[in-house]
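Reviewers of the previous submission asked for a worked example of the structure-prediction workflow described in the proposal, so we include one complete record here. The input consisted solely of the amino acid sequence. No template or homolog information was supplied to the procedure at any stage.
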Amino acid sequence: MFEVSVEYSFSAGHALRNYKGKCENVHGHNYRVRVSVAGEKLNGAGLLVDFSELKSSLRTLVEQLDHQFLNELRPFDKINPSAENLAKYISDGMGAEFQNKDFQLREVTVWETDATSVTYRPAGT
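From that input alone, the workflow returned the following structure tokens.
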């Protein structure tokens, strides 16, 4: 099994609902996101997926979040803009794009700080 990962960073603000503590106030993060895909079949060039293709897909998705107040964007206007929900949102967006490929989305990790992160793995991976 081969696994390929790319990372991309963006900045955004949020305020956690139903949370008692400093994070219920408006604040921001310099998020870092890692997306990993896995598969067994390499293409004719000996690649599972081109790094640039994977990074471009991630960039397209997260640029919609960059320098935004997440609480005002769908689906975070309804669900809490937690790192957990952000990781699932990115996973859902990336997974849909790669449905008919020779690889599958393995996991998405979202860092809010250098020392705190969340990893989401779609069911069946």
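The mean pLDDT is 94. We consider this example representative of the routine output the project will generate in years two and three.
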